[in-house]
Design goal:
It contains twelve helices and eleven strands. With 377 residues, it is of the alpha+beta class. It binds 2-{3-[(4-chloropyridin-2-yl)amino]phenoxy}-N-methylacetamide.
Length: 377
C-alpha cells in the first residue's frame, strides 16, 4: 500500500463558508478525510507520512487551516473557525497517538509470533560420550583409597626443584635425577620458604610427590592422602614411553605405621583393582625417598600366573614402586622421625590401565580415536 495519505501535498482551498454552520460543515469534511486516511495508516511509515501531512509545521494541513482558513476569516466567523480548528487539532493529535500505539502493538505481536518456539519440533539428539579409560582408572583407584579413609589432593604441575627433588632426598647430582631432571621453564622466578622472590628455575614435576611434601609441611600427622595428576619426564615417545604420563602417589604417616600396614594396604588395593584371586609379591628395589623400597608385582593378569609372553613366562607382572618413607624426608617437613613412620607408593595410571584392558600401545591413550575410546564406553 502507498504510504502517502491522499491529502499529502494538498493545498487547502479557501474555506468558502458564510455561517457558523457552514464552517462546521467544512471542518467536518476535513475531519472525515483525516479519519479515512488514519484508518489506512497500518505501519510505521504510513503513520509518519500521515503525521507529516497533517501536523507538519510548514505545510501540514493544520498549519494551512490556520493560515488559509483562520487568519483571513471575517471577525464574526473567527471565533467559530478558531474553536473548530482547536477541536480538529486535538482530534488529529489524539488519533495519531492511539494509531501509533496500535501499530506498535501489532508489530510486536507479529514479531513474537515469528519468534515463537515450535514446541512440537523434535529435540536435538546429542551423541553421549564416555569417560576416557585413564579417567575411569583414576576414579576406580580414588574410590578404593577413599574407602580406606584417604583424601584426594592435587597441586601444581609447575614446581620448584626444592619440592620436586631436594625435599624428597634427591640432592643435585644424585643419579636418580638422570631420568627425571627435565623440562625447565624459561621464567626462572620463584619464592623461597619466606615468600621472597629468588632466581631459580621452575620445572614440570616429574612425579606428584611434591604435593605430598607440601601437604606434610601444612599439617601434622596423621596423613592419609593420594595425589593424582600429570607428570613429565624427558622421553622420546613410542609404544611404552611418553614425555607425559599420569600418576597417583599415596602417602600414609602416623604413629606406629609398620611394614605390615603397608603390605596389607597394597594387597587390599591390588585385589580390589585387579580381582580377588590376584596375589602380590614384593621385590627389593631402590628409591631415594623410601627405605626399604620395593617393587610390587601381581600374578600375571593375562595367564593367571602360568606364564605367557606378556609376563615373559615368569607368571608375575610389575605393578608399581613403593616403600617405607625414608626418615630423611621427615627432616624436610619438620616431622619427628622418631615419633612417626609411614609408607608411600607411586602408581602409573597408564600402566595399570594397560594391564587391566590389555592395551599394547601407550600412544592410543592420547590420539583420541573414537574407535579406541568407544571400547571403554
Ligand atoms: C614409581 C615409584 C614411588 C613414592 C613414589 C614418595 C613420596 C614421598 C615420600 C616417599 Cl612424599 N615416597 N613416593 C615412593 C615410592 C615409590 O613411585 O615407580 N613411580 C612411577
Amino acid at each position: 500500500m502507498d504510504a502517502n495519505p491522499i491529502s499529502a501535498g494538498k493545498i487547502l482551498p479557501p474555506i468558502d463558508a458564510a455561517t457558523p454552520e457552514q464552517v462546521a460543515a467544512r471542518f467536518a469534511e476535513l475531519r472525515a478525510q483525516f479519519d479515512g486516511e488514519a484508518a489506512g495508516a497500518s505501519n510505521e511509515n504510513g503513520w509518519k507520512a500521515l503525521r507529516d501531512t497533517w501536523l507538519g509545521r510548514k505545510s501540514g494541513l493544520i498549519t494551512q487551516v490556520t493560515d488559509i482558513w483562520l487568519k483571513p476569516s471575517k471577525t464574526e466567523l473567527k471565533r467559530a473557525v478558531g474553536q473548530a480548528l482547536n477541536e480538529l487539532k486535538a482530534h488529529v493529535e489524539a488519533a495519531l497517538q492511539s494509531r501509533r500505539v496500535a501499530i506498535e502493538a501489532a508489530a510486536e505481536s507479529a514479531a513474537s509470533a515469528r519468534e515463537r518456539e515450535d514446541l512440537s519440533l523434535p529435540g536435538v539428539m546429542r551423541a553421549l560420550g564416555s569417560r576416557h579409560p585413564l579417567r575411569q582408572t583414576f576414579e576406580e583407584i580414588e574410590k578404593i583409597f577413599l574407602s580406606l579413609g584417604y583424601s584426594v589432593v592435587s597441586g601444581p604441575e609447575m614446581e620448584t626443584p626444592y619440592y620436586n627433588f631436594e625435599a624428597l632426598n634427591i640432592p643435585e647430582h644424585h643419579p636418580a635425577r638422570d631420568n627425571m631432571d627435565t623440562f625447565y621453564m624459561a621464567a626462572p622466578f620463584t619464592e623461597n620458604a619466606q615468600g621472597k622472590p629468588v632466581v631459580a628455575p621452575l620445572l614440570l614435576r616429574t612425579h606428584t610427590s611434591p604435593m605430598q611434601i607440601r601437604t606434610m609441611e601444612k599439617q601434622p600427622p596423621p596423613v592419609r592422602i593420594i595425589v593424582p595428576g600429570k607428570v613429565y619426564r624427558r622421553d622420546n615417545p613410542d609404544a611404552t614411553h611418553g614425555f607425559m604420563f599420569h600418576q597417583i602417589e599415596g602417602l600414609a604417616v602416623d604413629t606406629d605405621i609398620t611394614f605390615c600396614d603397608f603390605k596389607g594396604t597394597v594387597e587390599y588395593f591390588v585385589r580390589e583393582f585387579l580381582g580377588p584371586n590376584i596375589k602380590t609379591r614384593l621385590r627389593p628395589s631402590y628409591f631415594p625417598f623410601t627405605e626399604p623400597s620395593v617393587e610390587v608385582d601381581a600374578t600375571c593378569v593375562f595367564c593367571g600366573g602360568k606364564g605367557c609372553n606378556v609376563c615373559k613366562h615368569s607368571g608375575w607382572i610389575e605393578l608399581f614402586g613403593a616403600g617405607m618413607v625414608d626418615p630423611a624426608v621427615y627432616g624436610f617437613v619438620n616431622y619427628d622421625a622418631k615419633k612417626f613412620s609411614g609408607f608411600a607408593f607411586g602408581l602409573g595410571v597408564e600402566r595399570l590401565t594397560q594391564l587391566k584392558y590389555n592395551i599394547n600401545d601407550l600412544q592410543l591413550y592420547f590420539q583420541n580415536d573414537v574407535r579406541f575410546l568407544r571400547q571403554f564406553a
